[in-house]
Amino acid sequence: MQPSSSAPSSPANSVGSPLQSFSSPSNAVLSQPLPFIQKSDEREDESDVQDPLCKEAIQACRKRFHHSPKEEQLRVVKHIYNKQDCLLLAPCGWGKTLVFSLPMVMWKDKITVVISPLIALMQDQIKKLKEKDVTCLLLSTYNGNRVNDSDIKLVKEGHYRAVFMSPEVIFGKGSTACKVQDLWNNKYWKSQLCSIVVDEVHCVDKWKDFRPYYSQIGSLRGKVPGVPIVGLTATLPPDSLQEIKNSVFLASSTVHVIRVDDIRDNIQLEVHTFSLRNRVRQLAKLLDNTKTIVYFDSIALLRDVQDKLRPLRPDLRMDAFFSTRLSSSKDKVLLKFINSEIDVLLATDACGMGCDISDVITVFQYDLPHDLTSLVQRFGRAARGPGTKGFGILLAPPTTSRKYNKRPDILNFVAPQLTRTRTRKRTRKRTRTTVGGNVGGMWWMNI
């Protein structure tokens, strides 16, 4: 079944050693959800999955992806078919990629544009789609990359069913960007568009200050009226949701929001406070040889910690992944980590969104993240394999730190949960603060 006539026609259960066990009865269990994600505002009759379109989608999914789609995935496909804007909020590893991959194998004459923030993420998605015989192309100016005229010609002719782009190549300057922008003036190509997918759509609000072209994504609506926009993300606070509705969907009152509430009771959350002087040593003590990601908010901080950590833990197989490393080097590091040749990966968000490594046991956040959304996204990288258990550990400054002044959401999250235990060492008193418990009550975080 092709899109309706109103649409363009044709187309380890072992958890390694727990880093810190919490047996004290005073340990807080995070059971009170914050007002982070409300219940779904869309409920459709389950009989919808029995209509001809959904039956076709189920058959295609079983044939090409070897499993049955979830009900919410079918809803998104149905919205695309009906040319309706849609926003899907679902946890990391839930299967958001399928909602735009499935139409590619169902409607072979249609084209999907995928706008994504990270080259590594797009390359990974393209690799997986090519394994399903979906023709794909990445249009990018990354590392001085240029798009050939022959590539643009094939895109205009509809040779590629999936065209991946970054916001910079759509709205930026330079010869490559001009070639890509010319696509939006090509009537034939536009007539074949099935949907415009904005992957990791929370970046529209989160990254708008240092990647300003994100704020222009909504202008595509005027270039391709009638083509549905599909936003995908794992975590979205209410204020960001409204901002994205205004920016991406141009305040459309008809955008369909689908939320998937998923309890991750297999991740134990821990919060450790530290002094600025000894935080690297504390991290060194907490690390073990289980597969671990340590997230940083800046490359400079990552490199500094890496230099100090090596002599403290020479036994660890450790490497780093960040955006300014050569692509070939990043690929090698990531492959080694996937194959368990590296125990500890020090990383920025360049190794994050869309990165699905199922046997990561522990995720650290070193120092405060930019916002609570980032923390949720990163902790969600732990224990994604069936039956596994893991840890999300925040290394935070004391609650008296001025760093919290600009991050009240994180302070409100951390402070009430802290259980204080005092220990004395010869000449002075130190305070060590931790919180233990599972994340069963953290459904609101959608990790």
TrEMBL record:
It catalyses: Couples ATP hydrolysis with the unwinding of duplex DNA by translocating in the 3'-5' direction. One of its GO terms (biological process) is double-strand break repair via homologous recombination. CDD domains: DEXHc_RecQ (cd17920). Keywords: ATP-binding, Nucleotide-binding. Residues 1-18 have a biased composition (Low complexity). Residues 19-30 have a biased composition (Polar residues). Residues 1-49 are annotated as: Disordered. GO terms for cellular component: chromosome; cytoplasm; nucleus. Belongs to the helicase family. RecQ subfamily. This is DNA 3'-5' helicase.
